[in-house]
Amino acid sequence: MPRSSLPRNILLRRSTRSLPIQTPRPIASRSITTTTSSSSPSSSNPRQDAPSTSTSSFSTINASEISHFSSLSSQWWDETGEFKLLHRMNPTRIEYIRQKVALGPSEGEEWTFENRHSDFTRESKRGTGLWLSGKRCLDVGCGGGLLSESLARLGGQVVGVDASESNIGIATTHAQQDPSLSTKMQNGELKFVHSSAEVLRDAGEKFDVVCAMEVLEHVDQPGEFMKCLGQMVKPGGHLILSTISRTPLSQLLTLTLAEDVLRLVTPGTHTYWKFVKPLELRRFVYSDMGGYDTWHRNEDASDIRTEEVGETRGIVYDPLAGKWKLWGGVEGSTWKEVGEGCNYMYHARKRV
Amino acid sequence: MRANVSLLSVPRASGKTLCPRPLSLPSASRSSINHHPRSLHTPPSSLVGRDVRTSPCNPQAILLSRTSVGGTRNHSSSPAVEPPAAIPEISEENSYDIVIIGGANAGLAFACALLSQPTISSTTKILLLEGSSLDKTRNWSGEGDWENRISSLTWENISWLETIGVWKHIEQSRSCPVEEMIIWANPSPNSFPTIHFPPLGHPMARMTENMNLQRALLRRIEEIGKGKVDLKEGKKVQEMRLGEGQRWVGLRVGETEWIKGSLVVGADGPNSPVRLFSKIETYGHAYQTHAVVATLNHPLSPLYPNTTAFQRFLPTGPIAFLPLSSEASTMVWSTLPLHAAALKRLSPEALTLMVNCGYQLPESTLTALTDEMIRADQLGQPFSANRINELLASLPIPGNTVGETDQPILPPTITSIHAPSVASFPLRLSHANEYLGQRTALVGDAAHTIHPLAGQGLNQGLADVRCLAEVLENTWKLGGDLGSITSLADYPRERYPLNHLILSTTDKLHYIFRARNGIVNWFRGTGLEIINELGPLKKLLMGGAGAQPNITTRGELSKSRKDDEREFGRVRGAGDELGQIGGWQMTAANGVESWFTIKGVAKMAGEVGVGLVREGMRKAVGALDNRNK
Fold it and tell me: In which residues is Mg(2+) bound (chain A) (predicted)?
């Protein structure tokens, strides 16, 4: 079975160098940005000027992506505008975080059916109130602070990081105007920092919950980025991502429909070849980020997901209800994979 | 006054309302972020509504302003006013997550609903603001004369109130079960279509004084809401303004005190100041109808338990008879404003007679009598009891004499009326265009008002607050911003269509039952007869009306007799001079019911058969496979 580092197709397309399989490499996949591929669908994008120089303060940030989101930053909190779908997605993401962080088994607790499929008693005992209190959370690529604000309301001590200064400005102003969040900002329970994940990692910061929502598809070297996130997770902590898969379905929904036809999202926001498939992500965490020594295996799928770490779960927009829903389905089934064909969540938990 | 009320609404297509909209802000511009800080004062005349007891805000005094409204579109059309002084710094203890405006049914119930939600009740600060004192509610004794504000609580809502711990505070002796319901219209002596809703095994609804419910809600809040729900009484909202960045609403109560709320919930009655602040328009129309209410006394009946609600549809509107206790009932007579005024001017004795006539006289005779009443009233000599008796003796009564019309079951004949309870109020249908404004939400009468003929007004309000509390719990549990449109969107998505359905159905019923012409009469008569004879359809109607037959009941209700044992409220064979209901209609009804039974049984049998065949085939295929191996 081929064990992959991050997007294999990307590698083949983007680099002339073939990569040794099963060998942990310091810099994965898209790190080689010096070679240009003419087959890339949007190679006119000036993404090549990403800071991949061999300086010590290495960063996965893509400059053109940052300028793109900076230009949109004033619209972050317009609930009916550009980020309408993102606003609606937020509760569903938090619900996923809740299922994993609050309702999942505590450290040392035995895995039972109830742990994984929470019942009403468990839910009302652990999943209500300030279920995130005392947890240190990192929101990488916080944008206008949609997720950070919610995490802070739930009692978490939240640090929001974004590479765009204007985003940080928007997020700070917005949180300060909220009566309850402004006190949290004064107490240092909610911080917005103009920085990058790598800088925080180098500063030795550790978090109980590390989130990177819709970021993986915008960074330059997803492998490096993932490793950086993994290093910031405390033992027993959670790594939670949301991103987009690289399938014909995501091409149709995210690029063709949402961007080109319906114009729900500004065209050029997403790039198809930057998307990462769920399988690639799970395998990468296994092969390049420490495997089962560092991460819990997915107990729901321990018999079928060997050499893979974590759980992926589709997140699907229901236009009739006007909200996003977590896709169900049995691990390993086609039905579940169909649901992960576009947007999906990823969760992995670090061992103590 | 009508013109003033209608100012708050969008003119209906029929052009019933007279004035243009005072707040012609396009709804689209409400949601967009604009940066033109200025305020918009509405002409004070548009704020003078009809007096609403529970409205905590003084509509005349409220200054409607917000830091940012509209775009440049109506810049020229509205008077440019200097931006008001900045909101002073609001202290921490005056900052709330949820501010409820209005301490009547909807407001108090909303506070209780919020307290029943685990996350909301444990982590938010809630304020309930009531313009008048709540002492009258708090100190309501639960005995003595009946209030004239009485509502029917549906079984569904009673069950909910039980689960959130409110129902135990209700004064049970003052809450009367409605076991069955009889609705009829008799446009001519030979035609009296009737719907009879038989007993379900539990009450369809309970007639409860609003004070009784409000006191129970208040007691529940004081029981478990210490430190969670702050009550501020006697504080009128003088001014409302959106805060910086539209992240909160500032409310000025009194001269200098400001309160901050992330979400402001308007439970402040039909002329809701919160709705005005949110620039939400309503549409609807006033009925040319006023409702007269009164408490009726009648002797204890050995034959009928007083648990039957009656409603008769007259050409002027419905007259309802709703039980309160074994010896008292309440009346809601919806009729033309002129008639209502005349009825109110009658002496208690004369009114007693008129009410009896209202239930018992054939329609033509009653019309003649009310015509006489109006004539006398216009001459300045209201009817006396003697005059009515004279007229009754002289007026032609088709068929029978008073009390023996064709309608087989009538409400008990009343002996007196509790004079101070007589009151009247205008009826109006209205529905807000939206339930959500910027950081505001509307519940109950602030969002919709309805004709009382179906007794749904309060029940809709309770369903609203229940839904909104659930939506807020789900939002807060997931760290959402309580006042944002995205978080609250589920509330109108669930409630708006349902409320609209109830409002429009009630509206249509009002017109259908009022109309008197041959075709409508025939359709109505036949329709009602069909509905009455079709058990399943009737059950559906009752289920839809909020009475849920499948809810298990408490022990006390099991005493009520079964449907089979009674007929139109009386025990079968108990000196029934009317004889058994029978004939071809009964045969037809039985036939229809048998048909449904046979169909159901046949379907079940068919499914079993198909299952057997399928299983057999599967086994056969399996056997073949094995043999082939």
Answer: 214, 217-218
